[in-house]
Write a structure and sequence with these properties.
heterodimer; A: alpha/beta; Rossmann fold; 7-stranded mixed beta sheet; two-stranded antiparallel sheet; 38 helices; B: alpha+beta; SH3 type barrels; 6 strands; 40% strand; globular
Chain lengths: 861, 85
């Protein structure tokens, strides 16, 4: 049996997604409609042995050809074999919802009306005559409260009944007559078009003829095009243009505006007839709330509190949560260490190294999952509550000055404007920005915000190089650390704003813009399920990024860091050194009773591994019983490494320490030599002639190259380069202290100025590859993808050169260079805010809007 | 017949002060903007209430038959209204 398909149509904020979730439960999947970046949500349900597929159409106010969402909706309604279309209406706002319903009826789809949010309507004192409405529209009407599943069964019954009746046949005659009544001024023109269309066999079978006539009269570009294509001649199109021109001449009004206005009035009239409002002069709850939240003074204040709350809950509290996650991740690493091929004294099996490298790369990212979860849950609360459009309302004036849009705010919060975000979901959230030009400006600047992954490097550098205390007026003694953190936190915004403005005045100059018209949806209490679902969805996206792209690139980097490896001569050299050290150790412990088992190199190795196993156990905070149990595995070794009981144990332990220290120095030397020789090391060196002006040596270059996979890599790669620990890769964020010490010790020439240049480079640093891929998806263009990669790279390099070379020339230290740079960026931002390019803005908008007709359209009645 | 009379009461939506009400007479210009405004509920004939300006002066928020719409002054300037008392 063929599967039945139904579609959900409705305006934004009508509760359509609630209906969709209630019908399909968890059985959903998301894809894109072919050729456009509009999301296609599909789900299914089973009822009475029948499987029904449900397509959730994008929310649309209307069905014109102006936006991709509306075009997609139309295409599905016309061409997909649908056994029913459920139109979700907001019962509390019937007039607005009916505007779309009338258009759906004109398309002659098998329509079922779900009067959703009946509870809200009732609480507002709105009563609805369901039977009357159904009779008037000639379609079944089902009252529902989908948040509580009320009306779900009735709706599904209506779907089942609808499928029994054959499509189209039932309401076309009535609809045809109805629209002639609805558009009296255009009746004769519509009638003529309809007759012409009906004569075309090819069109008549595939489209509702009366709908085509209306669309031709509206001058709908997409319909005109397809009529021309299907009939193979311009005849109909030319006639439609003549009729439109005649209408305009007669009524001084463009036909499409007349038609939309008539629909609006019809919707208002139907709503008046079938809803009974009690106490309708009562100001709605949302409006009363907005009197405070959009207030001239309290509005921005409340917004500031919200932003601080975000910062506090996700960053401060979320960071505390990572203390619980890290031991789990570290435990996983220890587990892997245990089951992987064991290391030799100075040989580390490549497979072991490889797996641990991947685990470390993934762990560094997974560590942030709790922060992301909190962040995304909070954002979902903001979205579901309806506060987001209010933020756009409050901030649009400021953002617009920089070529951005009020609705860029959501993306900027996701991207880390309050320190710590992720550019991938942020880029995806730009989908909601209706203005193409500001949407691109947002996308291209988002990666310059401080995503979560850039933070570890900042913290590393700040804690090494900015330790002094400075005296400030009013504040007294303040540590440089906190000032630099504030600097880093705010500088990214001072990059984003002027750069967005510059981009929109240059490369984006000719992009399409759209008017800013937005609905202020009523406030809702977010549902637990909705918030949780969205948060999980976005966290999952982040995890998927780790498991796919980051791991893939980690593999490549591993190869580049290991190839070609040590020369045979050097290997022999290290072997000889090792043999010597082992012999010395064996000689020194000979004759001691505890050392009876220590006879060969293998014995020595197992002692070292035993000692490390114990150390790991201590580090993970194991209970005394577990430690005892570990000791029982080899009591003699246990006594040596605990070194408490006897002088003999102590002396062996001393010798062991020496050997272990020899081992780690040798491993470091080998690793360093290997990276020096490696492909990536060579590349880092090759870049040094340029990068030295930015203060980057080849190690920093290698670290920067490794951030392409994910920004977190900067620290773990530096960890690998400034290696000291036994397995090297272990030197990760779990013991950042040691890395800090190592970097300080091994990089004596590195000054705070170097660190400042590096941090500023990192702010601008090209987006990581997952972000670049998200940008490709969201812009649908390889050109913009490449631009989003190379432009910030160049900009970052120039900034770092400016700060480092300029700072060196002026003899500034990192801190002095910092606040001078800050002043430059701040001035640039202020200049850009007031800079108005000539022929742009109003004049251009005016022209665009007047294109094709310069008169007042109105007086439609 | 008496043009000066209609001119005096005609304003644009952008010129209304918060709390003032006007009936939409028509929308200047054509294309996307006019279509969008009508789709959102600001059609000729509807009674629009100017609710507020954003804290930084722009955009504005209006209400029309239960629809709460925010738009920039640049766009509101195309909406001709007749101010009601």
């Amino acid at each position: 049996m063929s599967k039945k398909t139904i579609a959900l149509a409705g305006q934004p904020n009508s509760g359509k997604s609630t209906v969709f979730n209630s019908l399909t439960g968890a059985r959903q999947y998301v894809a894109n409609y072919p050729g456009v970046t509009v999301e296609k949500m599909t789900g299914w349900y089973k009822r009475k042995g029948e499987t029904v597929e449900v397509v959730d159409l994008p929310g649309a106010y209307s069905l014109t050809s102006y936006s991709p969402e509306e075009r997609v909706t139309r295409r599905v309604l016309l061409h997909d074999p649908l056994s029913a279309v459920i139109n979700v209406l907001d019962a509390a706002n019937l007039r607005r919802s009916l505007y779309l319903t009338i258009q759906l009826l004109e398309m002659e789809v098998p329509l079922i009306l779900a009067l959703n949010m009946m509870d809200v309507a009732e609480s507002q004192g709105v009563g609805l005559d369901v039977q009357g409405l159904s009779k008037e529209l000639g379609a079944p009407v089902v009252p529902t409260v989908m948040t509580r599943g009320r009306g779900r069964e009735e709706l599904l019954d209506a779907v089942a009944d609808m499928s029994k009746i054959s499509n189209l046949s039932k309401n076309s005659a009535r609809s045809s007559a109805a629209h002639l009544n609805l558009y009296p001024k255009a009746a004769s023109a519509l009638k003529e078009l309809e007759e012409l269309l009906a004569a075309e066999e090819d069109l008549r079978t595939d489209f509702p003829v009366s709908w085509l006539a209306i669309k031709l009269m509206e001058g709908d570009s997409e319909v005109l095009e397809s009529v021309r294509e299907r009939t193979g001649s311009d005849r109909l199109v030319v006639r439609a243009h003549e009729l439109r021109a005649a209408f305009e001449a007669e009524h001084d009004l463009r036909p499409e505006l007349y038609i939309s206005s008539q629909r609006s009035q019809r919707a208002a009239e139907i709503a008046r007839r079938f809803e009974k409002r009690r106490g309708s002069d009562k100001v709605p709850f949302s409006e009363r709330v907005d009197r405070v939240l959009c207030h001239r003074f309290f509005g921005p204040l409340f917004l500031a509190v919200i932003v601080y709350g975000f910062y506090y809950l996700s960053f401060v509290q979320g960071y505390n949560l990572t203390h619980y996650v890290w031991p789990i991740l570290a435990g996983f690493r220890s587990f892997m260490e245990g089951i992987l091929p064991q290391p030799g004294l100075i040989e580390l099996p490549v497979f072991r190294e490889f797996v641990l490298w991947i685990v470390d790369n993934a762990n560094a990212l997974l560590n942030y999952v709790p922060i992301f979860f909190i962040l995304f849950a909070l954002i979902a609360i903001l979205e579901d509550s309806g506060y987001m459009p209010r933020i756009a309302f409050i901030l649009d004036r400021i953002l617009r000055r920089f070529g951005l849009h009020g609705q860029s705010t959501l993306s900027m919060i996701l991207g880390g404007v309050v320190l710590g975000g992720c550019a991938v979901p942020a880029v995806m959230a730009t989908k909601g920005i209706p203005d193409e030009k500001s949407r691109l400006a947002t996308i291209l600047t988002l990666p310059m915000l401080n995503c979560q992954a850039k933070l570890p490097l900042y913290f590393l550098l700040i804690s090494i190089y900015f330790n002094e205390t400075v005296r400030l007026p009013f504040f007294g003694d303040v540590s440089q650390q906190s000032i630099v953190i504030v600097f880093i936190q705010t500088i990214s915004l001072l990059f984003v704003l002027p750069i967005a403005k510059i981009l929109s005045m240059t490369v984006l100059k000719n992009m399409e813009t759209a008017p800013f018209i937005m609905e202020m949806p009523p406030y809702h209490v977010p549902t637990f399920r909705g918030v949780l679902g969205r948060a999980i969805e976005r966290v999952w996206l982040y995890i998927r990024k780790i498991t796919t792209v980051v791991v893939a690139i980690a593999v490549v980097l591993f190869v580049l860091l290991h190839f070609p490896g040590l020369t045979p001569e050097r290997k022999t050299h290290y072997e000889a050194e090792k043999d010597q050290a082992v012999q010395a150790f064996l000689a020194s412990v000979q004759g001691k009773s505890l050392a009876e088992e220590l006879k060969t190199e293998e014995d020595v190795l197992s002692l070292i591994l035993f000692q490390q196993g114990y150390r790991n156990l201590l580090r993970s905070g194991a209970k005394p019983e577990t430690r005892e149990a570990y000791g029982e595995k080899n009591p003699a070794f246990f006594e040596i490494i605990q070194n408490r009981k006897s002088e003999e144990a102590r002396s062996i332990e001393r010798e062991l320490k020496k050997l272990i220290s020899f081992r780690s120095t040798t491993l470091t030397a080998i690793r360093k030599e290997r990276i020096d020789n490696s492909v990536l090391g060579q590349l880092g060196r090759a870049l040094e002639p340029i990068s030295k002006y930015a203060g980057f040596n080849w190690r920093v270059n290698v670290a920067v190259l490794s951030t392409l996979a994910a920004k977190e890599n900067s620290v773990s790669t530096l960890g690998a380069l400034y290696v000291k620990e036994e397995t090297g890769a272990e030197a990760d964020s779990d013991n950042g202290d040691t890395l800090e010490a190592r970097m300080r010790d091994q990089e004596e020439d590195f000054t705070p100025l170097h660190a400042m240049a590096l941090m500023l480079f990192m702010v601008l640093c090209p987006p990581c590859l997952p972000t670049v891929m998200a940008i490709k998806v969201q812009t649908g263009s390889t050109k913009w993808m490449l631009f989003s990669f190379f432009f910030p790279l160049l900009l970052g390099l120039l900034t770092a050169i400016l700060v480092f070379s300029g700072g060196s020339a002026l003899g500034l230290d990192g801190f002095q260079a910092m606040w001078r740079f800050y002043l430059i960026a701040l001035s640039l931002t202020i200049i850009m805010a007031f800079f108005k390019p000539k022929s742009q803005n109003k004049a251009e908008l005016w022209l665009a809007l007047r294109k094709g007709g310069d008169r007042t359209h109105g007086d439609a009645f | 017949m008496l043009p000066e009379k209609t001119v005096t009461v005609e304003k644009t939506l952008a010129e209304l002060d918060p709390g003032e009400t006007g009936r939409v007479l028509g929308i200047e210009g054509s294309g996307v903007l006019a279509q969008r405004l009508i789709d959102m509920g600001l059609y000729p004939g509807v009674l629009a209430v100017m609710l507020r300006r954003a804290p930084f002066g722009d955009p504005i928020e209006v209400e029309a038959e239960g629809a709460y719409i925010t738009l920039r002054k640049d766009e509101a300037r195309f909406v001709k209204v007749k101010k009601s008392a």
